[in-house]
Amino acid sequence: MNQVFAADLEHIVKDSLQNAPCDLDVRYDEPMSNHCTFKVGGPADCFLRPSGKGFPAFASALLTRALADAVPVFVLGGGANIVVADSGIRGIVLDMGGWTGDARPIEGGMCFRSGTSLDDAAEAAALAGFSGLEFLAGMPGTIGGAVWMNARCYGREISDVLCETEVLDFSQGSLAGNPITQPTNPAEFGYKRSPFQDRQVLILSASFQLSPGDPRIIDAEMEGYRRDRSDKGHFRYPSAGSVFKNNPAFGGPTGKIIDDLGLRGLRVGGAQLAPWHGNIIVNTGGATASDIRSLTNELAARVKSATGFELEPEILFVPS
Question: What is the DSSP string of 246-313?
Answer without folding.
Answer: --GGGTS-HHHHHHHTT-TT-EETTEEE-TT-TTEEEE-SS--HHHHHHHHHHHHHHHHHHH-----B
